Amino acid sequence: MMLAEEAEAYRAEAKPEAESKNSPRGISRGVEAIAATVRTLPHQPGVYRMLDRRGDALYVGKARDLKKRVATYTQIQKLPRRLQRMVASTQSMEVVTTASEVEALLLESNLIKRLMPRYNVLLRDDKSFPYILITGDHAFAQITKHRGAHNRPGKYFGPFASAGAVNRTVTALEKAFLLRSCSDHVFSSRTRPCLLFQIKRCSAPCVERISQENYAALVDQAQAFLSGASNQIQRELASRMEAASDALDFETAAIYRDRVRALSHIQSHQEINIEGLEDADILALAEEGGQTCIQVFFFRGGRNYGNRAYFPSHDKSETAEAVLGAFIAQFYDNKPPPPDVVMSHQVPQASLLAEALSLKAGRRVRLARPLRGTRRKVMEQALNNAREALARRLAESSAQRKLLAELGDLMGLDGTPERVEVYDNSHLQGTSPYGAMIVAGPEGFQKNAYRKFGIRSPQTETGGDDYGMMREVMQRRFSRAQKEDPDRDKGQWPDLVLLDGGRGQLSVALEVLAELGIDQQPIAAIAKGPDRDAGRERIFLPGREPILLAQRDPVLYFIQRLRDEAHRFAIGSHRLGRAKKLTASPLDEISGIGARRKKALLLHFGSARAVSRAGLADLTAVEGISETVAQKIYDHFHPQP
Known about the structure:
By secondary structure, this protein is α+β, with helices and mostly antiparallel strands. It is built from 21 helices and 19 strands. Strands 12, 13, 14, 15, 16, 17, 18 and 19 form an eight-stranded mixed β-sheet that branches. It has a five-stranded mixed β-sheet with strand order 9-8-7-10-11. The chain has a three-stranded antiparallel β-sheet with strand order 2-1-3.
């Protein structure tokens, strides 16, 4: 049967009913849209996107044969309920052909991370990892912590699971190899050794307390240690310590002793020399109650650089193998994979995934599931960590959901709120005013949903206009929600709004909601007790008397925690804005004056004030400043009346 005929036959079977997304007629329309796309598809590899009526991605998939793969979505009776819902929401499709299936897999991973389609397995926590960098663009190399792109010349060692692990390792390496950690600018400006030299964490190459050749030898030792030759370096240092002691040079022997101790400190925290594990990542998946935890252990040079837990978002019907496969593809989308990726489950199309990672890394990458030996023992340890992390998360989620349910009862909601938004403002006598919104749900604080609002409305001369700030924040937040999610089906609308304030803030917020035509939005304000006494807060609700909870009520503690988190985020936003304002320059306000021209002007005149007083002839004398730019600078500081 032809695809169009299948769609027609399915539509003919539909009963007359409301055209909801999951109704037969809604599904048949999705089938028609997919069938229309299939007719124009080639038998080539590529990536396809299912789009809803607003053009947002519902699902991103890859295929070796686009025509055959996409055609399976028209066979609606063979699809699980989850995919039937997806087809019912599909209004159109977008397709990109690629040269190979490997390229399709790489593109698919990139699009999933960028578009976050609701029907894909999603890796939401994707922070960059810290590395140790030993620079290669200076005669005396610097050792430092590094995040981001590897653009600076030098050797990078990592990734480390946390910044704390990097900081501890860098400190120990400074003690062991006496490498400098100061910037090149500080290095070039030193005239005497700094404190790090005094506490034996630097060899003071800045003031020539060590020759370039001897310093280079220390750099080589540090790089060899980080590359896996730890035992060799430690034996060499121990031998030198004994030789110095035999020669009665006890001061030198003590230096070597301290260096050996520093190396031992690193080794005691990193489980050195696990046989069969040089450069590898261990990925262990545990699942329970429809949720999944993936623990990633990083081994480099046979050394454990720490581990991190991830909780990918996915449908409960997804298999563990499929979740792990999708996780691997997204996890290595923006970071280089190691030569070995050791998995707890055999993922689908493992050979294709290995080929894609190899193409990305520029060398061979192996994916394997260990069944015995040392790797299996390490995997069991990783699995135990994954199970424990998942159990903690489920327990926290259960407690959080219980508190949310009790909060919903207190506020008179029909059910348990899934998204609670809390608002607060911060300013310093009206300067650098900021509004803040934090979001909480069953899984805790959703920090990727936090928002800060730089207040644009003018403040009063005697201080900040708290009511005006609240009005602006609420107006901007909910007018944007109306624009981006008018049907309230994308999860951007709160089930409950909490305001840090009293009856006045609540009245202002209600006025804004009324002006925007928003009704039935649950909202409350939390006022601090007399003398700002925690535990005596009053909760103001529209049309009701204020609520005063018992001081030991768990819901009160929960509300205080939500309010304190909003307060912390608001103060942090205000401080960052104030610091940025303090370091701002009048030159930043002039269009066409970038960092290079700004630097040239400041070096030539010494200060922004001197630039503002300079004449046209003086401005054009600065390197990189043309007559046109000089006129623009002069006019900025000397406006015509």
